Automatic annotation (TrEMBL):
<dbReference type="Pfam" id="PF03370">
    <property type="entry name" value="CBM_21"/>
</dbReference>
<dbReference type="InterPro" id="IPR050782">
    <property type="entry name" value="PP1_regulatory_subunit_3"/>
</dbReference>
<dbReference type="GO" id="GO:2001069">
    <property type="term" value="F:glycogen binding"/>
</dbReference>
<dbReference type="GO" id="GO:0000164">
    <property type="term" value="C:protein phosphatase type 1 complex"/>
</dbReference>
<dbReference type="InterPro" id="IPR038175">
    <property type="entry name" value="CBM21_dom_sf"/>
</dbReference>
<dbReference type="GO" id="GO:0008157">
    <property type="term" value="F:protein phosphatase 1 binding"/>
</dbReference>
<protein>
    <submittedName>
        <fullName>PPR3D phosphatase</fullName>
    </submittedName>
</protein>
<dbReference type="GO" id="GO:0005979">
    <property type="term" value="P:regulation of glycogen biosynthetic process"/>
</dbReference>
<feature type="domain" description="CBM21">
    <location>
        <begin position="20"/>
        <end position="129"/>
    </location>
</feature>
<dbReference type="InterPro" id="IPR005036">
    <property type="entry name" value="CBM21_dom"/>
</dbReference>
Amino acid sequence: PPPLLEPLFPPQPGASPGFAERVRQHKVRLEWVRAEAAGLRGAVRVLNLAYEKAVSVRYTLNRWASCAEVPAAYQPGGPGDGLTDRFAFFLPLGAAAAAAEPTLEFAVRYRVAGAEYWDNNEGANYRLRGRQRVPPAPGPPQDPDSSAWIHFI
């Protein structure tokens, strides 16, 4: 099985106290991420500074020797606070994540009204470490009730 990516940061920053204030202050913040078999899915919250905006995620699997960038898609019916918008992204890792223990790093870019804002986890980048999944133990399937006593009268 492919390795499981384990975030080295809280995977749901949007659930932490003061998240809305951090979005207002920094203009862009990662809301949550979830590792999946084919890649990494997540959401970003941005301060609604103008109608036209672009959000993307820049990422690497080799400590920035090379990188890729994917656009994030606007999510209609987002937070409903009138101040922020939500964008969703998917980082397709495919065969690159099949390395023994891959490390994924990423940062979020928000471009709006001629300005550019980044969320790079306070300069540390968002990092996820690959961990091999433990395959099920070989042998016959174990019946959960196999150790139960059966008494016939």
